[in-house]
Amino acid sequence: MAGALAEVLGEVLVAPDGEEVAVAALAARGVSLVGLYFGCSLSGPCAQVGASLAAFYGRFRGEAAAGAGAQRLEIVFVSAEQEQQQWQEAVRAMPWLALPFADKRRKLKLWNKYRVSNIPSLIFIDASTGKVVCRNGLLVIRDDPEGLEFPWGPKPFSEVVAGPLLRNNGQSLDSTSLEGSHVGVYFSAHWCPPCRSLTRVLVESYRKIKEAGQKFEIVFVSADRSEDSFKQYFSEMPWLAVPYADEARRSRLNRLYGIQGIPTLIVLDAKGDVITRQGRVEVLNDTECREFPWHPKPVLELTDSNAVQLNEGPCLVLFVDSEDDGESEAAKQLIQPIAEKIIAKYKAKEEEAPLLFFVAGEDDMTDSLRDYTNLPEAAPLLTILDMSARAKYVMDVEEITPEIVEAFVSDFLADKLKPEPV
């Protein structure tokens, strides 16, 4: 256990009294599950969640030693605090362990590794493997306050979605009707303007895919604030929905896919395995649905619709100074073998790749990105942009070769590159 966990957390953590605790010592305590709590003591929502989490932690850990999971859970605070005194005060007030304040590089790596886009956030990982067990732990403490479902591991989509599904005409179908089809799990709400915009496009995409004879269904998982709002919004949709009253099932689906924001469209294959979590981007980029079911590409051409992915973690972006599609395609071919190698390596470990790969041509959006990140005008220009850390890494050479790209990526992953501020 210690090796896998130390790779994620480092060798030592800090206890509320300031004493160091060896990560290896967690095994002796019988810890089998670790919750990574991303938060900040200055945040109102974090303070509220922190109080609920402390009660859950105390209740779970304080049960009789004979309890099934009594001493098998530990929580580690991954702080967003900028000042050490604030961090010390926050840690003293918490009953669990914390990542050392000085280990800022590891903190950023954890935020990127687990694609944390907002706080508070709680991610459960297996202590023996370091692999994600549940991406939305905050829903766990809300839905299972007594910890009866410990260790909250992922279940098959067919099991989580099981039950009646609705059409907007009131017809009810059993979830077994989804068997053998590609499925889009659509997390959305009427109060969210980007959701309504995506829904209009998605209705047309759904129609085109069905007319092409593809076996495809969408299941709407509402985040609306009232049943009336749900009904109004669902009336615009030609697909299925989880009943609004079935809050437990809606919550379990959110937990299963670690939903942190809406709109989100998860596309599944006929077996229920995830093809892509970027269904929103794919639908907007491929309005004719020619590339359905949208298997991920190793290298993307940067566009207005997929630029949102720059905020999800470190991204390698190769800028080419040409509107010529031929030059962009050549740039994609140059970095694709490296991207494929990285993706395959991390897929074998059942982890998300630590980098996304883009080629950026010459247009207004690319110009804005260069201006925002204060990049030189040179082209070709090889960069890694880490927007969450407000950092960039730049390789400005006259000729970009596969060897240069591979060395650049390798040095980044090994923490050998010095970041520049964005």
Query: Helix/strand-derived class?
Result: alpha/beta
> Helical region count?
14
What portion of residues is helical? Answer: 25-40%
Mean pLDDT: 91
Overall morphology: globular
Unreliable stretches (pLDDT < 50, length at least 5) are none
The main sheet comes to: 6 strands, mixed
How large is the radius of gyration? 23 Å
Tell me the number of strands.
Answer: 20
State the distance separating the first and last CA atoms. 37 Å
Beta-strand residue percentage: 15-25%
Q: For the largest beta sheet, what order do the strands appear in spatially?
A: 15-17-16-18-19-20
What secondary-structure arrangement, pairings included, does this model have?
Elements: H1 2-9, E1 12-14, E2 20-22, H2 25-28, E3 33-39, H3 44-61, E4 73-79, H4 84-92, E5 97-98, H5 104-113, E6 121-126, E7 132-134, H6 137-143, H7 157-160, E8 164-166, E9 172-174, E10 182-188, H8 193-211, E11 216-222, H9 227-234, E12 240-241, H10 247-257, E13 264-268, E14 274-276, H11 279-285, E15 300-301, E16 315-319, H12 325-348, E17 356-360, H13 364-373, E18 381-386, E19 391-395, H14 402-413, E20 420-421
Helix pairs in contact: 6-10
Describe the structure.
The chain is α/β, with parallel strands linked by helices and 422 residues long. The chain is built from 14 helices and 20 strands. The protein has helices at 2-9, 25-28, 44-61, 84-92, 104-113, 137-143, 157-160, 193-211, 227-234, 247-257, 279-285, 325-348, 364-373, 402-413, and strands at residues 12-14, 20-22, 33-39, 73-79, 97-98, 121-126, 132-134, 164-166, 172-174, 182-188, 216-222, 240-241, 264-268, 274-276, 300-301, 315-319, 356-360, 381-386, 391-395, 420-421. A 6-stranded mixed sheet has the order 15-17-16-18-19-20, with helices on one face. A 5-stranded mixed sheet has the order 5-4-3-6-7, with helices on both faces. It has a 5-stranded mixed sheet with strand order 12-11-10-13-14, sandwiched between helices. Strand 11, helix 9 (227-234) and strand 12 (240-241) form a beta-alpha-beta unit. Helix 6 (137-143) packs antiparallel against helix 10 (247-257). The chain is globular and about 60 Å long.
